Amino acid sequence: MPLPAPWQLTPLAVVAVALCVVYEYGLRCLAVRQSTSHRRRTRRRSIVFYVGMLGAALVASSPLERWAMPWLSIHMVLHVVEMFYLPPLLIVGAAWVPILFAVPLERRRRVLSAYYQARSLRWLRSLSSLLTSPVFAIVAFNGVMIFWHLPAVYDWAAWHDWSMGWLMTPSFLVVGYLFWRVFLGSHPAPPRGSTRIQLVSIVVTAFVMLVLAMSMAIFTKDPWYSMNVFMDGSASALRDQRFAAGILWVCGDFWVVPALVLVLYRLSNRDGGVFGSLERALEAA
Mutual orientation of helices 122-131 and 105-117 as an angle, nearest 10°? Predict the structure, then answer.
């Protein structure tokens, strides 16, 4: 089977470039209304956003996908980057306000007024509330992660390499963005989840990753994916699959620990701190 071209034009890369252009124009429109200190903070956020967009475009369109085709372990590294490390950059980059300011004022007012007040768009507001809810983010994130690693689904995607850039990578970035918005604010909006929901998100996702990694490495004696068997043989594919499972497992610690520290820090600064909360819970019991 021929490998994909080293460099590819993917929808994600096109969207990334378009968003960067609109974002930069919006920054310039916004700068007119900002003080010098606000402009500097906005520019610092823009650098984070551009790094995230560059990373997304490189993952989708660069030779990384070609190199990853024979090796599931390299694919797993890309998946972890797409779900756990690029979305926080896009969130901290806070693109929505500059992008809104790129729209002319009168048109922006009409669109926002229609969205928030029009009865005919009530279904859209309900759908938006569902898609941005923390519970949906947790379910979608873990569901998409499991879905794309099912043998039948991954085999189909591997034998139709266009699906990687058109479907798999965008879906990982989207659900990753929704998931990390539970924890992270995107100026000027705060995080979407309470500290309780954030703790649940960490526990549930870490458990799903652990089970998936153990299923790929310990609970099977055969390689799951036909592409890897075709490219490298059964023994090499199984060995590579176990490396991939280890990457998934170990990388869980790289995001779980910082996320847990962040949530515990927030708890320690609320209502007398963690120990005060524990004391009140024990007294209530």
Answer: 90
pLDDT of 238: 92
| Domain spans, the chain | 11-284
Residue with tokens 């708890």: 267
The C-alpha atoms of residue 112 and residue 107 are separated, in whole angstroms, by 9
Those residues whose C-beta lies under 8 Å from the C-beta of residue 45, and which sit 6 or more positions away, are 92, 93, 94, 187
**Long-range contacts of 95-98, Cβ-Cβ distance < 8 Å, separation of 24 or more:** 95/19, 95/23, 95/49, 96/186, 96/189, 97/26, 97/30, 97/187, 97/188, 98/23, 98/26, 98/27, 98/29, 98/30, 98/42, 98/46
Residue 141, amino acid: F
Determine contact, residues 191/183, Cβ cutoff 8 Å: yes
CB 138 within 8 A of CB 200: yes
> Beta strands of 168-263 (E only): which ranges?
none
Of 166, 165, 19, 176, the C-alpha closest to 87 is: 176
Q: Is the peptide bond before 258 cis (omega within 30 degrees of 0)?
A: no
List, for the chain, all residue ranges whose pLDDT scores fall below the cut of 50: 274-275, 278-285
